[in-house]
Design goal:
Blueprint lengths: L1 H22 L2 E12 H7 L4 H7 L2 H4 L2 H6 L1 E5 L2 E5 L1 H11 L7 E9 L2 E9 L1
Length: 122
């Protein structure tokens, strides 16, 4: 009887954790793609974005106007924008000498917005 109670209690606990995680509306995602600033993204989204990304430079992405517009990651033609806190982290990362625009990110995705957990060069 005691074992059955413990098993039932454990199942209830696990179920409540799964429900709480699912109800938060966010999931952890890992994306490999290209960082682009939102100003350049908006200016070139009607063109062949994949072709533009190949010519987009890190120097452009860290100019004050581009940095102020925030950032997105483009992977397989899908654009995911970062939240405000993440934009500052991306800018800090891009200002490192050895950083690249081709990155792998881990983020919490809530709706269409990413909250950065980590970023590294691909």
């Amino acid at each position: 009887m005691k074992k059955a109670f413990l098993v039932l209690a454990a199942l209830c606990f696990v179920s409540s954790l799964a429900f709480a995680q699912g109800s938060s509306g966010s999931e952890t995602v890992m994306i490999k793609g290209d960082i682009i600033d939102n100003m350049c993204l908006d200016a070139h989204k009607t063109e062949d974005l994949a072709a533009f990304i190949k010519t987009h430079s890190k120097q452009c992405a860290i100019t004050p106007a581009c940095e102020a517009s925030g950032y997105a990651i483009v992977a397989e033609g899908i654009v995911n924008k970062f939240d405000q806190d993440s934009n500052a982290k991306i800018a800090e990362f891009l200002k490192k000498e050895d950083s690249k625009l081709q990155v792998a990110v881990t983020a919490q995705k809530s709706g269409e917005v990413l909250s950065l957990v980590s970023v590294e060069n691909q």
